[in-house]
Amino acid sequence: MEECIFCKIIKGEIPSQKIYEDDDVLAFLDVNPVEKGHTLIITKEHYHTILDIPEELLTKVYAVTKKLTMAISKAFEIEDFNILQNNGIRAGQTVSHYHVHIIPRHREFKLCLGIGPIKTGEELIDHELCNSEIAQLIRKEL
Question: Measured between alpha carbons, how far is residue 52 from residues 98, 124, 139 in Å?
C-alpha cells in the first residue's frame, strides 16, 4: 500500500508549513484552508481513525490541539474557532490518517455537518423515541 500524504509530510518528502512538532505529533497549516490559520494536527504514527489510536496518544493530541488553539486565537486576536475530526469516508475524512482540524473563525459562515433530520422513506423518525432507543444501545456497549 502506498503511503498517505500525511506520512510523506512527516518524512519530509512533501513540504509543509510546520507549526508544532514533538516525538508523537506534528501540526502544520492546511494547504487548502477554510480560513486563515486552518491547522492540522496529526499523529506521527499512522492510525486511520479515532478508533485505532491509543488513548494516551489521543490525550496528547488534544492537549496539543488546545495549546495550538490558544496560540492561533492570540495570533489572530479571535475567540471563535472550530475543532473538527472526521472518521471514515462517509464522515468526510479525505486523508485516511488520524488528524484534527483547528479552523479559526475570522468571518461568520456555517459549516455543513450533515444532510438534515433522519428520515425513513418519506417520514421523519420520532426523535424522542429514536434517541432514547439509540442512547440505550450505546449505553449497553459501555
Answer: 9, 34, 21
Domain count, the chain: 1
Asked whether residue 118 is domain-assigned, the answer is no
CA atoms in the 13 A half-sphere facing the CB of 63: 10
pLDDT in tens, 15-57: 999 999 999 999 999 988 888 899 999 999 999 999 999 999 9
Distance CA 24, CA 104 (A): 24
User: What residues make up the domain containing 90?
Assistant: 5-113
Top pLDDT among 133 and 127 is at: 133
Indicate whether 76 belongs to any domain.
Answer: yes
Residue numbers annotated as active site: 99
Domain assignment present for residue 35? The answer is: yes
